[in-house]
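To: structure desk
From: M.T.
Subject: fold request, one chain
Message: Could you run this one when you get a chance? Sequence is below, nothing fancy, just the single chain.
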Amino acid sequence: MTRAALLKHVRSILAKHGLTPDADVKEILSHQRRFFRTRCVDAKGRQYTFKVYLLTVPTTRHDFQHEIAFYHFAGKEHLTQFPRWVAGDRNRAHPWIVYYYIGGDLFTTYLKRRRNHMPPKLITSLAHMLVQYGQLRIPESTRRLLHLNAHRASDFTARFKQYSRGKNGNVLRQYLTETELEVAARIIAFHQTEKHTPRQLGISHGDLSTANLLVEGNHFAVLDWEHVQIASPAYDVAELWVKEFSRAPWRDKLAKRVALLQPDPAAFANLFAIETLLFCLRDILLHDKILHQLTHRKSQNVIRKLLVYYSRTFRASLRGFPALLKT
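Reply: Done. Structure tokens follow.
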């Protein structure tokens, strides 16, 4: 589809649903961005979000198709943390979706304005939201559509081997000792023997950060469900915790609060330590690669500091949940 045809396609969708976009459609499409997302209003002043995938890259296109399918399912649950489905087409060359607009600030912006301070009520609200959507049960038909695989999500050993073998292993040994990696392997092998039943696994965002959380009052909503998956209840909490490397107290309070909301807080604490360990390995590999691509010394120093953070956090994860919260 040419850019002119795509522009016509977008305008026809908006016109069919009686929507007027806030932004100039032609101007944004000309930027060759991956997505075009804009707020729209109808004749009665009701607000919606329109999002269309612009490129033809198969992998990211499939991700967006999964997001559309998930929103279709999640909209029926009527939970405030999910966008409410209005219309969409996942089978088009350029898939698109319309959902009710969610107000609020990006959590990143919220924290920056408040210097990383987060009131207790908001911590509790975020914890309850993570637990609530994590316990959703997706019907088998939707699971097949989203290619959700519970066995792969709980296979900590396979994920560890993916990061620690071959060339990846050589990279990790620049930052971690052989003994530390061996201890990590044994810890994972011990917990891998436990049977992670479907009841212990649930919905995971798959790429959670402060950049895809919206906050309004004491309520949260989550956007960008392109990487939705089945995972342990600690997956999203650990990823959010690891990515928030400012040492802000709210991240520890959030992890403790989510643990207390679990049927077995001790089991959750073990899962949290393992998920954190795996995220640190992933991010050491990622940032080592970035480091070797940079030429500016100041940028290199920033990445080196992050590598120190991930290495230190990895070591704390070997000592368990309490040690992590003191990192």
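Reply (cont.): The chain has two domains: 3-100, 105-324. Let me know if you need anything else for the meeting.
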